[in-house]
Amino acid sequence: MSNATFPLLCAKDLSVRYRVSGGRGVLMAVNDVTFDLLRATTLGLVGESGCGKTTLARAVLRLVPVSDGQVVFDGLDLSHLSGSHLRRLRRRMQIVFQDPLGSLSPRMTIGDAVGEGLRIHRLRRGSAIRDRVAEMLERVGLQAADMVRYPYELSGGQRQRVAIARALAVGPELLVCDEPVSALDVSAQAQILSLLVGLRRDFGLTYLFISHNLAIVDSVCDAVAVMYLGRFVEIGPRAAVFENPGHPYTRVLLESVPDPEPRPRRASLRTIGEPASPSSPPPGCPFHPRCPFAVDVCRHDRPELRATSSAPAHRVACHRADEDLSGATPSNASGITA
To answer: Could you say which of 30, 109, 262, 321 is the most buried, measured as most Cβ atoms within 10 Å of its Cβ?
Structure first.
């Protein structure tokens, strides 16, 4: 089996639970999630704020405890690793956070920040650390002279380049990008996205890319997973999900993307109300209270992810996934807007 088709990261029945303060129950931040991430590919993880995207990303990196299930990285089960065994794998799995100003220490120079992982993992010594830091800074579009500067002296885009250089310095194989451009202006977003695409190509990196911006996901990802209330409701190749969404929630997200060339189109879907609390999810399909196409079975039986008739790799958790709902009458008329 070639590396291109062998999963670098696998999550199986992964759940993350938190005890609600005051003994008021359990919050299911991630609920029974399973997926494979192939080497040198990018999986986009999308969904509303609070749906569990960041918790899932941190769980696969073992930055938060896993309540149930498995995380397997390059054939190694991380679920029960700890101490030195887990630390040895840390350099192979890195993360770029949303806010570079918050993720970079204001007391450390850029050179110290980028070189910190090299020292911790004992990958370089002495002047070799400085050489590696200079190499990484130049690779992300900065200069070796920037090593003596502090984060507050840089722009937002420059700080995010530093965060990327810091992650790359230790030679990772998996890079988790947690909303890496959402704190940047539009021009800086385009530059950082172009940089990430080039780095993936040049270093053979594998990305787990979290974003609420579906236009960005469409431009950089090979596959897409749609998350709602801690669960995957749809996952598949990017083209299949974007061109033929099987879940009403996915369709709502896609129709919320602004159209650069407005033109007349059919009535679009709109959800009703806010998502339920993950500490008290509704019975049946978690999306049914907001779904314009919910029927009785949706209110009682939770749908599991299953392959669609059009593409086996495209899986949807919806009782009506194989129905053509384009002309269907919504079950709640107020859920439709022109």
So the answer is: 30
List the alpha helices (DSSP H) in the chain.
53-60, 83-90, 100-103, 110-120, 127-139, 156-169, 186-203, 214-220, 238-243, 248-255, 296-300
More confidently predicted of 337 and 329 = 329
- DSSP single-letter state for residue 289: G
* Rounded Cα distance, 275 and 164, in Å: 33
Distance (Å, rounded) from C-alpha 284 to C-alpha 303?
A: 7
Measured between alpha carbons, how far is 60 from 79 in angstroms, rounded to an integer?
9
Q: Tokens 């350099």 sit at which residue?
A: 91
φ, ψ of residue 167 to 5 degrees: the values are -65, -40
Tokens of 27: 């919050």
pLDDT computed for residue 83 by the predictor: 83
Q: Highest mean pLDDT range out of 22-36, 143-157, 281-295, 296-310? A: 143-157
| Rounded Cα–Cα distance for residues 205 and 173 (Å) | 5
**Domain residue extents for the chain:** 3-226, 245-337
182: tokens are 């959402």
Q: Which fold, 3-226?
A: Rossmann fold (3.40.50)
Residues linked to residue 133 through DSSP beta bridges, in sequence order: none
pTM of the prediction?
Answer: 0.91
Tell me which H or E stretch contains 179: none
Q: Residue 132's pLDDT band (boundaries 50, 70, 90)?
A: very high
Distance CA 80, CA 71 (A): 9
